Amino acid sequence: MKLFIFRHGLTMANILDLRHGITDIYDISDIGEEQASRLGKKLSEFGIKTIYSSPLKRAVSTAQIVSDIINTDVKILENMHEMNLGEAEGMTNKESRDKYGAILDVQKSSLHLDFLTARIPGGESNAGVISRLEKFISYIKDKYDNSDVIALSSHGYFMTVTYYYFFKNIKTFKNCDFFQVEI
Q: What would you report as the CA-atom Rg of the chain, rounded to the nearest whole angstrom?
């Protein structure tokens, strides 16, 4: 089975350089809608059967635009939300880096012993994201055939951890970037 994972379109929080994690205030911007349309056109050639989405409106809106282009449905999964950033939610990237820089560095360094368990106070660890990802993979493997192509509308941190899970490498993703894996 092929799984395509894509990041939501640009939001005002992205423009303001805010960490918004599970905070669900911002939808995608006009630019984000254009990005999602371009993404839909790119993904149209792969025969995606279903798009799953994080419940956060920025991911749902992106998924809906893509699904309209590729003519498929969107299914919301509550546990596929972005990483909970705890006390850093709503901070600018600079503010969070000033306050939690050491933790953020550990979370993005797979060579660090605490890579999986480090978390901002009140937030989620990479291991927490991986646990949710593994449940999703198990769910779609039970529901679909090996020849099916599925997509997930997601978020930056979630994608970075997911990419690490599959490829043992750290990569960051811009709005409407995507990657695919065989599961």
A: 16
Asked if 2 contacts 150 with a C-beta cutoff of 8 angstroms, the reply is: yes
Query: How much is the pLDDT for 110?
Result: 85
For the chain, list the strands marked E by DSSP.
Answer: 2-7, 50-53, 73-76, 149-154, 178-182
Confidence bin at 8 (pLDDT 50/70/90): very high
Q: Where are the strands (E) in 19-168, listed by range?
A: 50-53, 73-76, 149-154
pLDDT (0 to 100) of residue 34: 98
> What pLDDT, on the 0 to 100 scale, is given for residue 97?
95
Q: How far is CA 115 from CA 21, 72, 158, 182, in A?
A: 18, 37, 14, 25
With 0.85 as the threshold, say if the pTM is over it: yes
Distance CA 94, CA 172 (A): 17
- Alpha carbon distance 61, 74 (integer Å): 10
Question: Which contiguous run of DSSP H or E holds residue 157?
Answer: helix 156-167
Per residue in 130-155, pLDDT (tens digit) is 999 999 999 999 999 999 999 999 99
**Domain architecture of the chain: domains with CATH:** 2-182 (3.40.50.1240)
Contact 110, 164 (CB under 8 A): yes
